[in-house]
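Standup notes, protein team

Yesterday: finished cleaning the Stylophora pistillata set.
Today: Retrovirus-related Pol polyprotein from transposon 17.6 structure.
Blockers: none.

Input for Retrovirus-related Pol polyprotein from transposon 17.6:
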Amino acid sequence: MPTPSDVVSVRRFIGFTNYLSKFLPRLRDALEPLRKLTSPDAEWLWTDIPDSAVRQVKLLVTKVPVLKFFDSTGSLTLQCDASDKGLGAILLKKGQPTAYASRALTYAESQYVQIEKQLLAVVYGSERFHTYTYGREVFVESDHKPLEVIFKKPLHRAPKKLQRMLMREIESINMTQHIRLKPSTLQEIKDHTQKEDSLLELIKVIKAGWPETKGELCHLVLPFFDVRDELSVCDGIVIRGERVVVPKSLPRDMLYRLHYAHSGVVSTLLLARESVYWPGMSGEIKQFIEMCDVCRAFDRKQPKETLIPHEVPDRPWAKVGVDLFTYRGRNYLICVDYYSSFWEIDCLDKTTSGAVVQKLKSHFARHGIQETCVSDNGP
């Protein structure tokens, strides 16, 4: 298998490896640098990145696969996931892989919100493994909690944008469907929910019914009153619409995950609003990003200068600050004492240094000679 030397040989290399894609996990990620070279707008430039990708793909191809022979008895597990660039699916039998599948997203699909990408991954895996899954019980595993809630609703109650994909998925599988989170993700959220008093109280209120006014509520659940119509409980986890309500002990860790790419306030908020919720989330995200050292270092805006506080003197009028300002077309001089914050204002006919000195002399004659005078070096 020689190293590609032009676009045609790159396409030939990709085609050959795609033939073996069901045996090769995460093949799409490995081929991504090579796929970029086949774009009509891309300039041919062979660097260490595509060369490393070729070596990685060769390693995948020559490695002995560990696929399990398909067994038609019992249930199957279909693990699906989606990233910003592609979809992936694994068909498992008793925890061992039977087949792999992956593909890149089209430009239009890459513009989907995350929940649409995750559902598209389920549809792709269902259609790709249709021969294995048709008419059988299949457990579909995903790390996207809102999918579990959507699949439990009737089709007509699902979001309009997702209904067509749901119908494709149902037609291709024709099976008993179960969408469930990966155990590690689910258990982590459940454990923290069970330890938090406010969420335990919230679960009780959701099951018992909400009162008509806030005054009848416990103070722990007051922040959720305005969104009460969107809240539900699924297997011990609180859900707002299609988003997971995150316990207070997790937001800091969640903030790091959401802002891992340092994509800015707007992009981070959009990402968060697709999947998670907690009271005050928007404010915490904005504050977290404002304090991010990496974002501040590469911010295009002029960084704010850190304020330097002045020392308070031991006696009145030992240190004063002076400045000029204009109000309604007239010029004024302000003189402020740093000890007492007492100020004096004089109207000036001229803003020359002589006029300013003359006014300051009168102040110093009344209050005493200062040790330090702070100004911006005006006239």
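Follow-up from PR in the comments: The longest strand covers residues 96-104.
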